[in-house]
Amino acid sequence: MISPLISLKSNSVLIIVTSLLLLCINFSIANEDYYYYYYKERTALYSLKTVLNNPFLHKVWTGPHCHFNTSIWYGIKCSADGHVAELVLENMGLRGNISESALINFSELSVLSFKHNYLSGTIMDFGLNPKLTRIDLSGNSFSGQIPASVLRLSGLVSFLLQDNSLTGSVPEFNQSSLREFNLSNNNLSGFVPKTTALELFGLDSYSGNPELAHYSSAGSKNDIAPSTGSPDDKDQSLKAILKKYLYVLDVVLLAVVILLLVLYFRKAKRLKKMMKEEAELRDRETKYSMANERIKGEEKSRDHHQIKSVEVESSQRLSVSNNNNNNNNTNGIGGGQAERGKLVFIHGDDEDDKREETFKMGDLLKASAEGLGKGTSGNCYKAMMEGKPVVVVKRLRNLKPLTEEEFAKQLLLVANHQRHPNLLPVLAYYHSKNEKLLVYEYVAKGNLFNRIHGGRGKRDRIPFRWGSRLTVARGVARALEFLHLNTSSPVAVPHGNLKSTNILLGDNDSALVSDYGLASLIALPVAVQRTVSYRSPEYQSTKRVSKKSDVWSFGGLLLELLTGKVAAYAAPAGARGVDLCRWVHRAVREEWTAEIFDGEIAVNRRSAVPGMLRLLEIALRCIETSPERRPDMSEVVREVEEIQLVDQSEDEDDDHGHSHERSLTDDSSMSTIASGDYRR
Ligand SMILES: Nc1ncnc2c1ncn2[C@@H]1O[C@H](COP(=O)(O)OP(=O)(O)OP(=O)(O)O)[C@@H](O)[C@H]1O
């Protein structure tokens, strides 16, 4: 951006300097001209003084003859630029023979008068006195012809040459400016030319010329001879022409300089503007990227400290005091309708079920948070408050556009479902225009997915044995049964998203099913993405989530428990899964059932095998393609509970006499499963 400005600047400066240099040269030439002409005039005046030889003139014609337009020399007037403009020496009794070239150095001369003296010689050449307007040489003794150069005096007003001894013809004067004209009393001859200018003057102007006829009827053929001039004259005229050109050049150069300056300043202004705009743009970009960075930073810190971001909104608009002890709540939700900005604790209907409101929104806002994971319905954060129980905050997103009342109503349904030992209760919720939060107890042992798949092959992995898996299966079955049978709910709410990451592990491997009841809050397109039940075969035709689709999901969960393989439809982001239903069906069909079970289940426990096969059988019935052929959850619970829970310590025993594979293949149940007779 700067370089064009510099190049423009340097070019312009070069041109300006050159132009100024030329102007200086011109000026010095002009100056030199001035002095040249000044001294030439002076020399001519001195020559004239010598010729005239007049004591008076000798006395007064000294020093500089012109100082600008003033002169101390007698008979001389100067022009503004210090040249002789008038030469008037009248009635002084002057004598002398004036040369023809006596006036050639007076280029500015406009008035010449030597009238009434005794001067002789020929009439001077006026070829280099173009400004002459008045010539009065009357009353002298001039002889010879009237020079043709008088015809070139275009501004001639007065021409008085009477009373001399002139001979020859009258030149063809035709200057329209001519007002006074007298050639009387000379020895002129021929005809007075018939020109418009001369027609103005009568006989008096020609009288006293015996051989001169007043009008030339034939018209004079007097050619105006061009001034031949001396070499010096030629030099003068050349100089005059050169001077004229130099003036023109000066004007042109000056115009160029002005033009360049104008262009330079305009371009500089434009460049300055462009640079300013560019700087502004850069400034804006910097601000924009800084803002972007800031937003990114904010997003990042929101991810890590999500709860903190609520603080801004809450502290601005919301009261942090939360514990609503108002018991006029008929719906079972603590405090009835959520007051704007308050954390609303969810209680059961009866007094016994009242939760202790051990923390407030303010505590939550101050808590340090740790991200647990990004679900499709929102992100989960572990919130650690000082001196308070650790909780999990689920920041909901992709919600249906529900009003606060509708949101509270849906949570009421959840609240009514929550009082079961295998369902993770929602402790509280928070609702504002921009923020919807659910608060849960924190379950330290984590989720079933990590228990099955986490740390495989690592030495510190605690094996997940058959007894624990069966306990989990029972707990989940009971929780689902509870959800499906809950008649107190005005709307039947299937879980809709049953999968191993939504099953948390409490004490003694008790299952805590979470994430239930959210399907009614989430916008449908997102719900389709997240909800495992939507992947059930019948969803393609019915487009509805049902209790039977929950059964299908439960079947899938049992397969995951038994095989230790990740189910593709329920795999969290980043985990690759297999189509467990197809895989297991194939294994059963091809009678390599022994390979179905996770090697870690019961390393060498023969006693566990019947239960495992029984659970596999139940799982296969749950994943029947036709929903009608699937058992309902009550049936499933009964069957799962019939499976004998082997002594936990047996899980750990080593039975070196029987290999795991042999135990399974030897079992007669295998043939039952393979033949498909597990269906009741
Ligand atoms: N109360 C809790 N205690 C401990 N861990 C929890 C608790 N609630 C959720 N988690 C864990 O936090 C993680 C994120 O859960 P979240 O429900 O947001 O996503 P998801 O279960 O992976 O997917 P989806 O949104 O489909 O349910 C999961 O690993 C989940 O097991």
TrEMBL record:
SUPFAM superfamilies: L domain-like, Protein kinase-like (PK-like)
GO MF annotations in UniProt: ATP binding; protein kinase activity
UniProt keyword Repeat present: yes
Region named Disordered: 294-337, 644-680
A Pfam family: Pkinase
Biased composition range(s): Polar residues: 312-321
Binding site for ATP: K394
InterPro entries registered for this protein in UniProt: Kinase-like_dom_sf (IPR011009), Leu-rich_rpt (IPR001611), LRR_dom_sf (IPR032675), PRK1-6/SRF4-like (IPR046959), Prot_kinase_dom (IPR000719), Protein_kinase_ATP_BS (IPR017441)
Compositional bias per record (Low complexity), positions renumbered to this chain: 322-331
First-listed, main subcellular location of the protein, grouped into a coarse class: membrane
Matching PANTHER family: LEUCINE-RICH REPEAT RECEPTOR-LIKE PROTEIN KINASE PXC1, POLLEN RECEPTOR-LIKE KINASE 4
The protein's name in its UniProt record: Tyrosine-protein kinase
